[in-house]
Amino acid sequence: MTATVLGIADDRALGGTLRVIVTRPRSLADAKAAVDEVVSAIDGAASRFREDSELSRINATPERQVTVSPMLAQAIAAALRGADLSDGAVDPTVGTAVRLAGYDSDFASVLKEGGPLRVHAERIPGWRAIRFNAATRQLWMPRGVEIDLGATAKALASDLAAAAASKVIEGGGVLVSLGGDIAVAGDPPAGGWSVQASEDSSAPIEDGEETVSIDAGGMATSSTTVRRWTRGGVVLHHIIDPATGQPVAGPWRTATVAAGTCVDANIASTAAIVMGEGAVEWLKTRGLAARLVDREGQVTRVGAWPEPASSKLAPNVL
Ligand code: AMP
Ligand code: MG
Questions:
Q1: Which fold has domain 49-140?
Q2: Residue 143 above 80 pLDDT?
Q3: Is 270 near ligand 1, meaning CB less than 6 Å away?
Q4: Atom 6, ligand 1: which residue's CA is nearest?
Protein backbone atom coordinates (compact mmCIF):
# COMPACT_ATOMS: atom_id res chain seq x y z
CA MET A 1 0.00 0.00 0.00
CA THR A 2 1.35 3.42 -0.88
CA ALA A 3 1.07 6.19 1.68
CA THR A 4 -1.24 9.08 0.77
CA VAL A 5 0.66 12.11 -0.49
CA LEU A 6 -0.65 15.07 1.45
CA GLY A 7 -0.74 18.72 0.48
CA ILE A 8 0.15 20.99 3.40
CA ALA A 9 -0.15 24.80 3.71
CA ASP A 10 1.17 26.61 6.79
CA ASP A 11 0.27 30.16 7.69
CA ARG A 12 -0.60 32.32 10.69
CA ALA A 13 -4.12 33.35 11.66
CA LEU A 14 -6.13 34.47 14.72
CA GLY A 15 -2.92 35.15 16.68
CA GLY A 16 -1.54 31.65 16.16
CA THR A 17 -0.60 29.02 13.64
CA LEU A 18 -2.82 27.83 10.79
CA ARG A 19 -2.24 24.52 9.03
CA VAL A 20 -4.37 23.12 6.21
CA ILE A 21 -3.79 19.57 5.00
CA VAL A 22 -5.55 17.90 2.08
CA THR A 23 -5.33 14.33 0.84
CA ARG A 24 -5.38 15.54 -2.80
CA PRO A 25 -2.51 18.03 -3.12
CA ARG A 26 -3.85 19.57 -6.32
CA SER A 27 -6.80 20.89 -4.27
CA LEU A 28 -4.59 22.63 -1.73
CA ALA A 29 -4.91 26.17 -3.09
CA ASP A 30 -8.71 25.93 -3.27
CA ALA A 31 -8.92 24.45 0.21
CA LYS A 32 -6.66 27.15 1.64
CA ALA A 33 -8.71 29.90 0.00
CA ALA A 34 -11.93 28.49 1.50
CA VAL A 35 -10.27 28.27 4.92
CA ASP A 36 -8.93 31.84 4.69
CA GLU A 37 -12.39 33.16 3.94
CA VAL A 38 -13.91 31.53 7.05
CA VAL A 39 -11.01 32.56 9.27
CA SER A 40 -11.21 36.17 8.20
CA ALA A 41 -15.00 36.19 8.78
CA ILE A 42 -14.51 34.84 12.32
CA ASP A 43 -11.76 37.36 13.00
CA GLY A 44 -13.97 40.24 11.90
CA ALA A 45 -16.89 38.98 13.97
CA ALA A 46 -15.40 37.60 17.16
CA SER A 47 -11.88 38.92 17.79
CA ARG A 48 -11.37 40.66 21.10
CA PHE A 49 -8.03 42.06 19.91
CA ARG A 50 -9.37 44.04 17.00
CA GLU A 51 -11.11 47.26 17.96
CA ASP A 52 -13.09 47.15 14.74
CA SER A 53 -14.46 43.64 15.25
CA GLU A 54 -18.18 43.25 15.74
CA LEU A 55 -17.57 41.76 19.19
CA SER A 56 -15.33 44.65 20.33
CA ARG A 57 -17.95 47.16 19.25
CA ILE A 58 -20.64 45.30 21.17
CA ASN A 59 -18.45 44.95 24.26
CA ALA A 60 -17.92 48.72 24.18
CA THR A 61 -21.64 49.54 24.08
CA PRO A 62 -23.52 47.56 26.74
CA GLU A 63 -27.21 47.79 27.63
CA ARG A 64 -28.31 47.98 24.04
CA GLN A 65 -30.35 45.50 22.10
CA VAL A 66 -28.31 44.53 19.01
CA THR A 67 -28.89 42.11 16.18
CA VAL A 68 -25.60 40.33 15.64
CA SER A 69 -24.31 38.87 12.37
CA PRO A 70 -24.99 35.20 11.62
CA MET A 71 -21.30 34.41 12.21
CA LEU A 72 -21.15 36.09 15.63
CA ALA A 73 -24.51 34.53 16.50
CA GLN A 74 -23.06 31.09 15.82
CA ALA A 75 -20.01 31.82 17.95
CA ILE A 76 -22.10 33.17 20.85
CA ALA A 77 -24.51 30.25 20.63
CA ALA A 78 -21.58 27.81 20.74
CA ALA A 79 -20.09 29.60 23.75
CA LEU A 80 -23.38 29.60 25.65
CA ARG A 81 -23.91 25.94 24.83
CA GLY A 82 -20.45 25.28 26.26
CA ALA A 83 -21.37 27.16 29.42
CA ASP A 84 -24.53 25.12 29.78
CA LEU A 85 -22.80 21.76 29.14
CA SER A 86 -19.94 22.54 31.52
CA ASP A 87 -22.17 24.04 34.19
CA GLY A 88 -20.40 27.36 33.79
CA ALA A 89 -16.79 26.10 33.88
CA VAL A 90 -16.49 27.48 30.36
CA ASP A 91 -18.10 30.90 30.38
CA PRO A 92 -17.82 33.66 27.75
CA THR A 93 -18.23 36.41 30.37
CA VAL A 94 -14.60 35.91 31.49
CA GLY A 95 -13.63 38.84 29.24
CA THR A 96 -12.96 41.39 31.99
CA ALA A 97 -11.15 38.83 34.14
CA VAL A 98 -8.88 37.77 31.26
CA ARG A 99 -8.02 41.40 30.54
CA LEU A 100 -7.41 42.28 34.20
CA ALA A 101 -5.10 39.25 34.52
CA GLY A 102 -2.93 40.95 31.89
CA TYR A 103 -3.99 39.23 28.65
CA ASP A 104 -5.11 42.46 27.06
CA SER A 105 -3.77 42.21 23.53
CA ASP A 106 -2.76 39.64 20.96
CA PHE A 107 -0.55 37.22 22.94
CA ALA A 108 2.55 38.14 20.94
CA SER A 109 2.26 41.67 22.43
CA VAL A 110 1.53 40.65 26.04
CA LEU A 111 4.57 41.62 28.18
CA LYS A 112 6.17 38.45 29.50
CA GLU A 113 7.04 40.18 32.76
CA GLY A 114 5.56 43.15 34.52
CA GLY A 115 4.90 44.82 37.86
CA PRO A 116 2.39 43.45 40.36
CA LEU A 117 -1.29 43.64 39.50
CA ARG A 118 -3.93 44.82 41.91
CA VAL A 119 -5.58 41.62 43.05
CA HIS A 120 -9.04 41.50 41.66
CA ALA A 121 -10.65 38.29 42.83
CA GLU A 122 -14.32 38.20 42.20
CA ARG A 123 -16.75 35.84 40.58
CA ILE A 124 -17.27 36.76 36.93
CA PRO A 125 -20.70 38.12 35.85
CA GLY A 126 -21.72 34.72 34.53
CA TRP A 127 -23.19 33.62 31.22
CA ARG A 128 -26.76 33.85 32.46
CA ALA A 129 -26.32 37.63 32.58
CA ILE A 130 -26.30 37.66 28.76
CA ARG A 131 -29.63 37.73 26.98
CA PHE A 132 -29.36 36.08 23.60
CA ASN A 133 -31.99 34.75 21.24
CA ALA A 134 -30.34 32.48 18.67
CA ALA A 135 -33.38 32.53 16.37
CA THR A 136 -33.59 36.33 16.09
CA ARG A 137 -29.84 36.87 16.78
CA GLN A 138 -30.82 39.54 19.33
CA LEU A 139 -28.22 40.18 22.02
CA TRP A 140 -28.37 42.29 25.16
CA MET A 141 -25.52 42.60 27.63
CA PRO A 142 -25.51 44.27 31.02
CA ARG A 143 -22.92 46.95 31.81
CA GLY A 144 -19.66 45.52 33.10
CA VAL A 145 -19.81 42.36 31.01
CA GLU A 146 -17.21 41.71 28.33
CA ILE A 147 -17.68 38.67 26.17
CA ASP A 148 -14.55 36.68 25.33
CA LEU A 149 -14.94 34.01 22.68
CA GLY A 150 -11.29 32.94 22.84
CA ALA A 151 -12.21 29.39 23.82
CA THR A 152 -14.87 28.96 21.14
CA ALA A 153 -14.22 31.10 18.08
CA LYS A 154 -11.03 29.38 16.96
CA ALA A 155 -12.62 25.94 17.27
CA LEU A 156 -15.72 27.08 15.44
CA ALA A 157 -13.51 28.53 12.71
CA SER A 158 -11.76 25.16 12.36
CA ASP A 159 -15.07 23.30 12.06
CA LEU A 160 -16.52 25.77 9.55
CA ALA A 161 -13.28 26.03 7.59
CA ALA A 162 -12.88 22.25 7.29
CA ALA A 163 -16.49 21.94 6.11
CA ALA A 164 -16.09 24.81 3.63
CA ALA A 165 -12.81 23.45 2.26
CA SER A 166 -14.23 19.97 1.93
CA LYS A 167 -17.02 21.40 -0.20
CA VAL A 168 -14.76 23.19 -2.66
CA ILE A 169 -12.15 20.49 -3.16
CA GLU A 170 -12.63 17.58 -5.52
CA GLY A 171 -13.17 14.77 -3.07
CA GLY A 172 -10.64 13.57 -0.56
CA GLY A 173 -10.26 14.92 2.91
CA VAL A 174 -9.12 18.05 4.72
CA LEU A 175 -7.70 18.85 8.13
CA VAL A 176 -7.65 22.39 9.52
CA SER A 177 -5.65 23.27 12.61
CA LEU A 178 -5.90 26.72 14.14
CA GLY A 179 -3.35 26.87 16.93
CA GLY A 180 -3.99 23.19 17.67
CA ASP A 181 -7.78 23.39 17.41
CA ILE A 182 -8.24 20.69 14.80
CA ALA A 183 -11.23 19.80 12.63
CA VAL A 184 -11.34 17.26 9.82
CA ALA A 185 -13.84 16.74 7.01
CA GLY A 186 -14.26 14.48 4.01
CA ASP A 187 -12.57 11.13 3.48
CA PRO A 188 -9.59 10.72 5.80
CA PRO A 189 -6.28 9.32 4.56
CA ALA A 190 -5.72 5.58 4.98
CA GLY A 191 -5.33 4.92 8.70
CA GLY A 192 -6.96 8.23 9.65
CA TRP A 193 -5.50 11.64 10.40
CA SER A 194 -2.53 11.13 12.65
CA VAL A 195 -2.33 13.86 15.28
CA GLN A 196 0.55 14.43 17.68
CA ALA A 197 -0.58 15.14 21.22
CA SER A 198 1.64 18.08 22.23
CA GLU A 199 1.22 20.63 24.96
CA ASP A 200 2.41 23.37 22.62
CA SER A 201 0.60 23.58 19.28
CA SER A 202 3.74 24.91 17.62
CA ALA A 203 5.82 21.90 18.72
CA PRO A 204 7.47 20.20 15.73
CA ILE A 205 6.11 16.86 14.54
CA GLU A 206 8.65 14.33 15.74
CA ASP A 207 9.14 10.58 15.76
CA GLY A 208 8.54 8.97 19.12
CA GLU A 209 5.93 11.54 20.23
CA GLU A 210 2.51 10.28 21.27
CA THR A 211 0.10 10.32 18.33
CA VAL A 212 -3.52 9.29 17.91
CA SER A 213 -5.59 9.16 14.75
CA ILE A 214 -9.06 10.47 14.05
CA ASP A 215 -11.33 9.93 11.04
CA ALA A 216 -13.91 12.62 11.74
CA GLY A 217 -14.82 15.42 14.13
CA GLY A 218 -12.22 17.39 15.96
CA MET A 219 -9.59 17.59 18.61
CA ALA A 220 -8.60 20.51 20.84
CA THR A 221 -5.98 21.26 23.43
CA SER A 222 -6.12 23.75 26.28
CA SER A 223 -2.95 24.43 28.17
CA THR A 224 -1.64 26.78 30.81
CA THR A 225 1.97 26.18 29.76
CA VAL A 226 2.23 28.38 26.69
CA ARG A 227 0.05 31.47 27.19
CA ARG A 228 1.54 32.50 30.52
CA TRP A 229 3.27 35.60 31.88
CA THR A 230 4.40 37.04 35.22
CA ARG A 231 3.29 40.12 37.09
CA GLY A 232 5.20 41.06 40.23
CA GLY A 233 6.79 37.60 40.28
CA VAL A 234 3.41 35.81 40.16
CA VAL A 235 2.90 33.43 37.25
CA LEU A 236 -0.40 34.04 35.49
CA HIS A 237 -2.00 32.32 32.51
CA HIS A 238 -4.98 32.64 30.22
CA ILE A 239 -7.52 30.17 31.57
CA ILE A 240 -9.79 31.76 34.15
CA ASP A 241 -11.72 29.99 36.88
CA PRO A 242 -15.15 31.64 36.63
CA ALA A 243 -15.64 31.08 40.37
CA THR A 244 -12.74 33.36 41.32
CA GLY A 245 -12.04 35.44 38.22
CA GLN A 246 -8.39 34.38 38.57
CA PRO A 247 -6.22 32.05 36.48
CA VAL A 248 -7.09 28.44 37.32
CA ALA A 249 -4.90 26.83 39.96
CA GLY A 250 -5.96 23.23 39.37
CA PRO A 251 -4.08 19.98 38.87
CA TRP A 252 -3.99 19.90 35.03
CA ARG A 253 -1.65 21.99 32.95
CA THR A 254 -2.84 20.56 29.61
CA ALA A 255 -6.01 18.85 28.40
CA THR A 256 -6.51 17.39 24.92
CA VAL A 257 -9.95 16.11 23.97
CA ALA A 258 -11.36 14.44 20.84
CA ALA A 259 -15.05 14.93 20.08
CA GLY A 260 -17.62 14.99 17.28
CA THR A 261 -16.73 18.60 16.44
CA CYS A 262 -13.79 20.82 17.26
CA VAL A 263 -16.16 23.14 19.15
CA ASP A 264 -17.20 20.30 21.44
CA ALA A 265 -13.61 19.15 21.87
CA ASN A 266 -12.69 22.71 22.77
CA ILE A 267 -15.53 23.15 25.26
CA ALA A 268 -14.37 19.97 26.95
CA SER A 269 -10.66 20.80 26.95
CA THR A 270 -11.13 24.23 28.51
CA ALA A 271 -13.71 22.81 30.93
CA ALA A 272 -11.28 20.06 31.97
CA ILE A 273 -8.62 22.61 32.97
CA VAL A 274 -11.17 24.59 34.99
CA MET A 275 -12.85 21.56 36.60
CA GLY A 276 -9.61 20.00 37.84
CA GLU A 277 -10.06 16.58 39.50
CA GLY A 278 -13.75 16.52 38.62
CA ALA A 279 -12.92 16.63 34.91
CA VAL A 280 -12.18 12.90 34.68
CA GLU A 281 -15.69 11.93 35.75
CA TRP A 282 -17.29 14.67 33.64
CA LEU A 283 -15.41 13.53 30.51
CA LYS A 284 -16.16 9.85 31.16
CA THR A 285 -19.85 10.51 31.66
CA ARG A 286 -19.95 12.21 28.26
CA GLY A 287 -18.03 9.41 26.57
CA LEU A 288 -15.20 11.73 25.54
CA ALA A 289 -11.64 10.56 24.96
CA ALA A 290 -9.09 12.82 26.60
CA ARG A 291 -5.45 13.12 27.56
CA LEU A 292 -4.77 15.15 30.69
CA VAL A 293 -1.30 16.23 31.80
CA ASP A 294 -0.81 17.27 35.41
CA ARG A 295 1.59 19.91 36.69
CA GLU A 296 4.37 17.34 37.08
CA GLY A 297 3.90 16.07 33.54
CA GLN A 298 2.08 12.85 34.54
CA VAL A 299 -0.41 11.78 31.89
CA THR A 300 -3.94 10.52 32.61
CA ARG A 301 -5.78 9.00 29.66
CA VAL A 302 -9.56 9.11 29.86
CA GLY A 303 -12.20 7.04 28.04
CA ALA A 304 -11.16 5.69 24.67
CA TRP A 305 -7.89 7.64 24.55
CA PRO A 306 -5.36 4.91 23.62
CA GLU A 307 -2.22 4.09 25.52
CA PRO A 308 0.80 5.21 23.45
CA ALA A 309 1.75 2.51 20.96
CA SER A 310 5.11 1.11 21.86
CA SER A 311 6.68 -0.07 18.65
CA LYS A 312 9.87 -1.27 20.32
CA LEU A 313 9.88 -4.78 21.73
CA ALA A 314 12.40 -5.73 24.36
CA PRO A 315 12.84 -9.50 23.87
CA ASN A 316 13.67 -11.38 27.00
CA VAL A 317 16.70 -13.70 27.18
CA LEU A 318 15.80 -17.26 28.15
P1 AMP B 1 -8.63 27.47 25.21
O2 AMP B 1 -7.22 27.67 24.80
O3 AMP B 1 -9.49 26.88 24.17
O4 AMP B 1 -8.75 26.75 26.52
O5 AMP B 1 -9.28 28.90 25.41
C6 AMP B 1 -8.71 29.79 26.33
C7 AMP B 1 -9.14 31.18 25.97
O8 AMP B 1 -10.54 31.32 26.27
C9 AMP B 1 -8.42 32.21 26.78
O10 AMP B 1 -7.34 32.73 26.06
C11 AMP B 1 -9.50 33.25 27.05
O12 AMP B 1 -9.61 34.10 25.94
C13 AMP B 1 -10.76 32.41 27.12
N14 AMP B 1 -11.04 31.85 28.45
C15 AMP B 1 -10.26 31.80 29.55
N16 AMP B 1 -10.88 31.17 30.55
C17 AMP B 1 -12.09 30.81 30.10
C18 AMP B 1 -13.22 30.15 30.68
N19 AMP B 1 -13.22 29.70 31.93
N20 AMP B 1 -14.32 29.99 29.91
C21 AMP B 1 -14.34 30.44 28.62
N22 AMP B 1 -13.32 31.07 28.03
C23 AMP B 1 -12.20 31.25 28.75
MG1 MG C 1 -8.96 25.88 22.52
A1: T-fold (1.10.3980)
A2: yes
A3: yes
A4: 151
